[in-house]
Amino acid sequence: MITVLESPIEGYFVITSDNLVFEVKGVVHPENRIIAYLRYVPSESSSTGFKKVYDLDEREKYLREKYPEYLWNSEPHGRIVQSVSEEKIESILDPVDRLAQMREADEVTHLERESVVLARKLVEVTEIEWSNIGITGSQLVGVAGKESDIDLVIYGSTACRKFYSGICTKIDNIPEVRRYSGQLLENHVLFRWEAHTDLHPLLIEIERNKMLQGLIGDYHFFIRLVKTQSDLDYVYGDLSYQMRGYQKISGKVLGSNDSIFTPCEYQVECTSIPNLEKLISYRGRFTEQVSTGVQFEAFGRFELVTDHRDDDQYMQLVLGERSTDYLIPTE
To answer: What is the model's pLDDT at position 6?
Structure first.
C-alpha cells in the first residue's frame, strides 16, 4: 500500500538489530539516522516478550548502561539524543500499513476490531482518506494486551485540519464514541497530570473539552495529528538549539493553530522575556491545552533557537520532558 510518507516520522516504530523497539519522535531527522526514543525492551517474564519503558530518564539510563551507541550527540540540538542509525534498523513499522492489514484480516482481537470500527467512524464523519490514517502504539508493535488503548494517527497538515474541523462538530453524534466525563475524566487527569494534583480542578475542565481523545466501548483512545516533511519549510540542521535551563513563565497566547499537532506549538508573547516566541511539546498531553488570546502560565525548559537560513534568533519553551512541566490558562 502506498502511504503519504516517504520516511519514518512521528507515530512510526523502529525495531533494531538488538531487538529494541524505538518510537520515532517528530518529523525532522538527519541523514542516515532516525531520532527516536526507546519504548520497549526484551523481557523473558512478559507474555509478549517485551517490557514497556515509561520514564524518559529510565530509557536513557537503560541505554547508557547497555546500549550507549543509541545515545548520539546531535550538534543542532546541542545535546545527546536517543536515535537509531541506519545500520541498526532491522525493520520499520508503518501505522497506515498496519491499520490496512487490520481492516483486511479475517481474524482479529476484540481490541483490533474496536480500533477498526473507530477508525471507520472517524473516516466517515471527517471524510479524510484511508491513506492518511494509521494505528500506532502497542498495536503497531504487536504487544497489545487487555488493558491497551487505541492510538490513532492522522498524517498531513491538510488532512489533519480537515479531520479536526470535522471532529469538533460531529464527535458528540458518533455512535458508541464518548468523551471523558465523571469519574473516568478524573481518572484520566490523575494519570496524565499526576505531578500536579493542586491543578486538577482546572486540568479537569481543560481535558473535558479536548477533541482528540475519548472512549469507544471500554477502550480509551487518543488521536495524534502529525505534519509530514512536505508540510515544513526547513530540514535538519536549518535550526539549532541551546539549552537555557528550566523556568516558570507567564504571558499571552498569540496563536494556537498548531496546538492540535504532535509536536504541538503555540505562538506567545511574554513581557519579561521579549524574544520568547513559542511554546512547543512532543508530548500528546500538551495538545489543545490553551487557545489564542488567553493568558497562560507554564513551566518547562528554555531553548535559544538559531535559524541559520537568516541568522534569526528567538527563545522557545519546551514542555513535557519532565513530569513537573505544565501549561495552563490563567483567566
So the answer is: 57
